[in-house]
Amino acid sequence: LQAYERRFPTCPLIPMFVASDTVSEYKSEDEAIHVIERRCKLDIDAPRLLKKIAGVDYVYFVQKNSLNRRERTLHIEAYNETFSNRVIINEHCCYTVHPDNEDWTCFEQSASLDIKSFFGFESTVEKIAMKQYTSNIKKGKEIIEYYLKQLEEEGITFIPRWTPPVACKLESSTSHARRPVSPAINIPDSATKEGLNNKEVLNTSSSPSEPTAGTPDDKLDADYIKRYLGDLTPMQESCLIRLRQWLQETHKGKIPKDEHILRFLRARDFNIDKAREILCQSLTWRKQHQVDYILDTWNPPQVLQDYYAGGWHHHDKDGRPLYVLRLGQMDTKGLVRALGEEALLRYVLSINEEGLRRCEENTKVFGRPISSWTCLVDLEGLNMRHLWRPGVKALLRIIEVVEANYPETLGRLLILRAPRVFPVLWTLVSPFIDDNTRKKFLIYAGNDYQGPGGLLDYIDKEIIPDFLGGECMCEVPEGGLVPKSLYRTAEELENEDIKLWTETIYQSASVFKGAPHEVLIQIVDASSVITWDFDVCKGDIVFNIFHSKRAPQPPKKDSLGAHSITSPGGNNVQLIDKVWQLGRDYSMVESPLICKEGESVQGSHVTRWPGFYILQWKFHSMPACATTNLPRVDDVLASLQVSSHKCKVMYYTEVIGSEDFRGSMTSLESSHSGFSQLSAATTSSSQSHSSSMISR
């Protein structure tokens, strides 16, 4: 507490914390209770344009600290005073003594953000708020350690606990021995977690061990690392092996190549938990939208081929594939009006997939690992037309999708001939770009790219495009205005968008506590084979298969038993009526299977009888959480929208005749399975000529 109080009235370690004033203060007579309320002035790290629109330079928060020395607790509450009618922010922190060990300090933190309206920039404000909140949490440890060290330098190493006044002591039948407080502690990074429900146990006697390098049996071949992965420390190599092993155990053969796993590890500074989370989300996304097959199955519309001013152009001096984008010559408004947001997104995904393929080819050609590409963006011609709001919205969404699924693929971004309007576009876009990615940006105004430190430092003179003063003919389309005759109505674009993104055999479902998701399959001929392939996107579930001789009633929202729920994350359908009894009305034909979050499960069941089979995904209640499973601070973004009583699954089921079934009874090898083409060890099978009787 002594260290914490030194943060006021201002703190040099928190640049955004400009000043604070005490609004009110209360102390009880015995000094056990101390409540102080402050008004804090903050300089939020927000784009200057946004501050101008909002009409403020600073925002004010009210913070109330309630210290109870008798109970040994400190509660901190904060809420925003500025824009309180547009944005509602509430934060609560609590320090307590662990009930089982007085030398442990428990820390709990929660926050909520509700943006009602903000001049049309609600999404940008949300991103800024989340980024600022995460940054503040990360600095919490650094700040408290700074002031603890300051106290030690002043000779303050012991502060006695609060004891009742002398009069109270005489009345007490037992004396209270004074004990020294816990010494200053070192909070290991691996023990911290971020989240909206962020709980930490700070142990002064021991700390979680740091990850150790892999044993000799776990090491990768040195030549393989040098040839395909680049320089790795023993710790980084160990992280790669451990994450790959986890994927092998949970994803059953659908393992991405080491180069791809390494990208996600690098994007999260080799934090395995963080890398595993975003990698699993990306693999599920690729599978759901069939991204692996986009280069083979999707042909860009002619409008894109004619007016999208971008294309691949040789390679840079480091051997990275070079992509040239003449953004200033591109009619973004016309492309969005003619094609819609989804078609543009899909085209950008195909460009990224082509980039991954070219990286593999260049790795073979140059004999060294090349895992990223260079992008050259020419902004000559950029004007206010490019700031058309739907176009900027499409750009922001594209950036968000690419950042999440193609991390560490951009080696360098060269922005040339940036006009005066560029800072406005950069102000809108930059909050959505990862900090590590922003460090790779090089921006040149006018003809600065022709001087020292310019284009020739990164690209050979022989391949500089002709439109930049080079001698190499560039085949990138020149762009130009899209004819308005090609524009389509909002209804036409909406239908096209649905068509683009529903080209998937997988369905999504939400599973709630007390509300499983169930799929009905009717079997006419015995000895048919029910196959399934599903991913557990969120939470833990139990998978069951039941058989009934009679059909369940169609789900009705107003029925007392079976019902159906629609949610943004997928449907929830319940078929088994509450009055049905297991063993009388229906029977279990397979043992329940517990599936953890992130797992991919494929399987099959040979039916013994005709009738109705029900596949069920049920919420799996976890036992009480151990102290080692506390949420991390780095998960704060995801935690804002996570409910502990909701799971998500993405599934595909099919019924095929036994004579057409390829594979064992425990693994699905149907050609319909969406195995990722990023896999280097995917189980393959010949084309299945199955005759599906029923497909759900």
UniProtKB/TrEMBL annotation:
Domain (PRELI/MSF1) ranges: 1-156
Family annotation (InterPro entries): CRAL-TRIO_dom, CRAL-TRIO_dom_sf, CRAL/TRIO_N_dom, CRAL/TRIO_N_dom_sf, GOLD_dom, GOLD_dom_sf, PRELI/MSF1_dom, SEC14/CRAL-TRIO_domain
Location(s), subcellular: Cytoplasm; Golgi apparatus
GO molecular function: RIG-I binding
GO BP: any one term: negative regulation of RIG-I signaling pathway
SMART domains to which the protein is assigned, alphabetical: CRAL_TRIO_N, SEC14
Domain of life: Eukaryota
Record carries keyword Acetylation: no
Pfam families from the UniProt entry: CRAL_TRIO (PF00650), CRAL_TRIO_N (PF03765), PRELI (PF04707)
Residue stretches making up the CRAL-TRIO domain: 300-476
Alphabetically ordered keywords of this record: Cytoplasm, Golgi apparatus, Immunity, Innate immunity, Phosphoprotein, Signal transduction inhibitor
Keyword Amino-acid biosynthesis in record: no
One Gene Ontology CC term in the entry: cytosol
Quaternary structure (record): Interacts with RIGI (via tandem CARD domain); the interaction is direct. Interacts (via GOLD domain) with SLC18A3; the interaction is direct. Interacts with SLC5A7 (via GOLD domain); the interaction is direct.
PANTHER family: SEC14 RELATED PROTEIN, SEC14-LIKE PROTEIN 1
Primary role: May play a role in innate immunity by inhibiting the antiviral RIG-I signaling pathway. In this pathway, functions as a negative regulator of RIGI, the cytoplasmic sensor of viral nucleic acids. Prevents the interaction of RIGI with MAVS/IPS1, an important step in signal propagation. May also regulate the SLC18A3 and SLC5A7 cholinergic transporters.
Protein name: SEC14-like protein 1
Gene label: Sec14l1_1
